[in-house]
Amino acid sequence: MRSSESRLRFVSGELSDLGALPDVVDVAAPRSISQRARDVVAHRSLLANLVRRDLRVRYKGSVLGFFWSLLNPAMYLVVFSFVFTVFLPARVPLFGIFMLSGLLIWNFFNGSLAAASNSIVENRALVQKVWFPREILPLAALGSALINMFLQAVVLVIGSLAFRNAPDVRALPLVIYAVIATAVLAAGLGILLSALTVEYRDVSHLLDVGMTAWFWMSAVVFPFGAVAVKLGENQWLAFLNPMLAPILAFQRALYDPAPSLPGETPIIPEESLAWYYGRVSITLAIGVVILFIALRVFARREDSFGDQL
Questions:
Q1: Is residue 4 part of a domain?
Q2: Is residue 249 within 8 Å of residue 175, measured between CB atoms?
Q3: Total-model pTM
Q4: pLDDT at 235
Q5: Residue from 40, 11, 13, 15 nearest 132 by CA
Q6: Other beta carbons within 10 Å of 23
Q7: How many domains would you assign to the chain?
Q8: pLDDT score for 265
Q9: Cβ atoms of residues 184 and 94 within 8 Å
Q10: Tens digits of per-residue pLDDT, 128-152?
Q11: How far is residue 67's CA from residue 58's CA, in Å, rounded to a whole number?
């Protein structure tokens, strides 16, 4: 048990006020998934403070600070636009805008998993000192990655203005829906990986390899239209990758290619917005299932976190 004046203090390895905790919590009683959700909501101020802490620590001592978040996508935009326009002319107009549209949501997903998988291990001082919903740690990693995605979107906006590429305004709600679906998927995988990493430290290394392979199986650098032509009626196999639909949704809304001419291979599927919403809904459904499984696994393992750390 702990008093209502218990405070979590932990910034860059030192203790600092992260907010008050609720008065009474029976940490010995098993908690249902609905109770876990209520606990996270009750500790939302702690979650917000952890997100702020992660962002401050990431750029601590940096002269440019948050501008470093913009540098990576800006370099991608400039370099890929130059390379695939001058040296390796691509059949994709404004290739830099095309690639960055899909890269935004991929970086959010990849960054969430990379940070969430190590979130319990890297916050061992918090886990061993006081009680709080441990799920908050991987969720804070997701929140930090989400803010970084919004910062990186500034580069896409500037690039679209520079290259006079207008998004499809009607499809912008699809972007929000794709972010929600990706966030649920990332939350489920992040919580699962964070629990496994406590016992199996090789998980983070396997994740690096797996995410590299996953990236190249997703239509970020190459147009999905070319893959669809190869697969023909079996193109549904490509959608076994749950990240494909959110990436295509971002490309459909933010890149919005012109319709292909007769005989040309379309850059992305030339389907209705309803088709895209349907594919993203499948990703959301997969994310919900994984999140449910992850919370069950997390619940069975969290009592041993303190000893294993």
A1: no
A2: yes
A3: 0.85
A4: 84
A5: 40
A6: 10
A7: 1
A8: 80
A9: no
A10: 888 888 999 999 999 999 999 998 8
A11: 12
Widest distance between CA atoms in the chain: 71
Q: Which of 68, 71, 76, 141 minimizes the C-alpha distance to 103?
A: 76
Q: Give the pLDDT confidence of 148-180 residue by residue, as tens digits.
A: 999 889 889 998 998 888 899 999 999 999 999
Tokens of 237: 């196999």
Pairing of strands 7-11, 14-20: antiparallel
The residue segments making up the domain with residue 67 are 54-308
Query: If you average pLDDT over residues 39-65, what whole number do you get?
Result: 81
pLDDT of 31 > 60? The answer is: yes
Please check whether residue 50 is in contact with residue 145, taking contact to mean a CB–CB distance below 8 angstroms: no
Distinct helix (H) and strand (E) counts, the chain: 13, 2
Do residues 105 and 179 make contact, with C-beta atoms less than 8 angstroms apart? Answer: yes
- Within-domain flag for 156: yes
Provide the pLDDT for residue 26. 45
Contact 70, 152 (CB under 8 A): yes
**CA-to-CA separations, 185 to 56, 113, 215, in angstroms, rounded:** 26, 10, 16
Q: Is 264 domain-assigned?
A: yes
Measured from the Cβ of residue 128, the count of other Cβ atoms closer than 10 Å reads 11
